[in-house]
Amino acid sequence: MANTYIAIKTVTVPSTPAAVIDFDSIPQTYTDLVILLSARSNRNGDNDFPVITFNGSSSGFDASYFYATAPSDVQAFQSATQAYGYITTSLNPSSTFSNTTWYIPRYTDTSYPKSFLCESVVPNSTITSNKFVLMTHGGKTSSTAAISSIRLQSLGGHSFVEHTTATLYGIKNS
Question: Does the pTM exceed 0.85?
Fold first, then answer.
């Protein structure tokens, strides 16, 4: 089976910061979805967290997280309220953007709750003296509805800054 990534929509934040990035009217013709986010937040503090919502709802998520800033600093935790990644902030060097990927299989299947896998890498993190933060997590929602819209926004209500780019891909298994 060949997998083919098709770019559905790309959003690049202009000079005015954006509170949200929306992917609406997602075609129901693909097997899976992938979102690639290269982001930076205007938060004046440690790293920020991009939250993903499906069909306008962030409730019903159940996720397990693995977080590391060094081999000696590894943590795991559970969240039943949010599904989020990690992004750099105004405290990081101005040219530093984090990278987050969400993989959402079977997004049109109404027989099962929607599952996802997320990975984030934040270079030059200000949280510790380490050079990066790695966070990966997977989980599911309680909803079985097909995903027709996705929203990305900051957990703390901050905005994505200029040059933040998010691309939604459809994957066709053929």
Answer: yes
